[in-house]
């Protein structure tokens, strides 16, 4: 169960879990949005979108300068990290902060 899964990072997480054949419970406050996300999960369609504040071209240009990869991270990048941490592949990982920031700390 992912709370707040009708938009943003929560939506990306449930969609990615769905693509990996996980059983998901989609929850949120807006029934129309929840229905839309639930349908997307059922269809296992890909998800790629930015947050609304990333529509500002000046912000995007400046933010890319802070990334080792010269791009702005997508919500899907965070969802992949969540899937990894929820999987058996991370079973020996404890008490760590996983920085999903495109190398922002290196610049």
UniProtKB/TrEMBL annotation:
- Taken from the record, one Pfam family name reads adh_short_C2
Protein name (database record): Tropinone reductase-like protein
Origin organism of this chain?
A: Dinothrombium tinctorium
């Amino acid at each position: 169960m992912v709370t707040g899964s009708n938009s943003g990072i929560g939506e990306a997480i449930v969609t990615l879990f769905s693509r990996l054949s996980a059983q998901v419970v989609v929850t949120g406050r807006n029934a129309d949005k929840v229905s839309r996300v639930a349908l997307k999960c059922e269809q296992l369609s890909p998800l790629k979108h930015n947050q609304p504040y990333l529509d500002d071209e000046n912000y995007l240009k400046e933010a890319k300068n802070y990334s080792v990869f010269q791009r702005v991270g997508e919500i899907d990048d965070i969802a992949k990290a969540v899937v990894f941490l929820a999987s058996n592949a991370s079973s020996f990982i404890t008490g760590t902060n996983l920085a999903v920031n495109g190398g922002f700390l290196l610049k």
